[in-house]
Amino acid sequence: MAGLVLEKVDFKMIPDALGIKESLLTRNISPATTVMSSGVEDGTCVANVVWEVVFRYKTKMVMRCKASYVVSYDGIENVSEETVGVFVENVAKTATYAYFRALYAHLDWSANLGSQPLPVLQLQPKL
């Protein structure tokens, strides 16, 4: 990894979230990746990885945390764009999750939400 930048954070919580028992909330964690530059020409791959965690009470969203990371990798040479996409999907997602997990823990603490820590994910490669 040549670089990692936290590009944007969006944390929203409605006041009702503090009064709802944690056992009544459902949590969903989802990532999205986008290759911004494959690096086929210059050897540097740049990608965007967005992590989002959403808490819902019944169907109502009560809290959302979304963080966008820009990741770059050097040494991407003599590979196809498809290979770069698979690399980003499997490696960049895994590399950024630990940062997102720590960021979320801090924001959760600051908001006095008191939710359980995000789980340690074991992402399975998509080939």
Can you summarize this structure?
The chain has 127 residues and is of the alpha+beta class. The chain has one helix at residues 81-110, and strands at residues 3-13, 25-37, 44-57, 60-74.
What does the model show?
By secondary structure, the chain is α+β, with helices and mostly antiparallel strands. The protein has a single domain, classed as Bacterial Protein-export protein SecB (Roll). The chain contains 1 helix and 4 strands; from the N terminus they run E-E-E-E-H. The chain has one helix spanning 81-110, and strands spanning 3-13, 25-37, 44-57, 60-74. Strands 1-4-3-2 form a 4-stranded antiparallel β-sheet. A hairpin with a 2-residue loop joins strand 3 and strand 4 (60-74). The radius of gyration is 17 Å and the shape is elongated. The mean pLDDT is 88.
Sheet of most strands? 4 strands, antiparallel
Tell me the CATH architecture.
Roll
Distance between the termini: 21 Å
Strand order of the largest sheet: 1-4-3-2
Number of strand segments = 4
The proportion of residues forming helix, as a percent range, comes to: 10-25%
Give, in order, the helices and strands. Answer: EEEEH
Poorly predicted regions are none
Number of helices: 1
The CATH class label is Alpha Beta
By CATH, the superfamily comes out as SecB-like
What does the secondary structure layout of this molecule look like, with pairings?
Blueprint: E1 3-13, E2 25-37, E3 44-57, E4 60-74, H1 81-110
Antiparallel strand pairs: 1-4, 2-3, 3-4
